[in-house]
Amino acid sequence: VYKAGDFKKPRNLVGLAKTLPVEQMEELIIANTTLDPGAMERLAQDRGIAVQAWLVEKGGIDQARVFLLAPRVGAEAPKGAPAGGRVDFTLR
């Protein structure tokens, strides 16, 4: 992913892209990645649909008891949790 990325990379004396530790490559990839505004909402919606399907098909829960609500992207995560790493399940 780093090699294929279309962003400015640190160069060595010869002008070739430097070999960096994985952590630094990941930081550069993240810093140079842009998303369109609806990308996170679509990802959250797709994940919700996948979980809903699993609960019905494999979990044996009646379809009428499983509701999929609109995603809340950007909601504040609990302390210590990664941003975007939270899913809420509610029983009714």
How is this structure best described in words?
32% of the residues lie in helices and 0% in strands. The protein starts with 21 loop residues before the first helix and ends in a 35-residue tail after the last helix. The protein has 92 residues and is mainly alpha-helical.
- How many DSSP helices? 2
% residues in beta strands: under 5%
Mean pLDDT, rounded to whole units?
83
Unreliable spans:
none
Helical residues, percent? 25-40%
Sequence of secondary-structure elements: HH
Task: Tell me briefly what this model is.
The protein is mainly alpha-helical.
Features of this protein?
single chain; 92 residues; mainly alpha; 2 helices; 32% helix; elongated
Secondary-structure map with pairings?
Blueprint: H1 22-31, H2 39-57
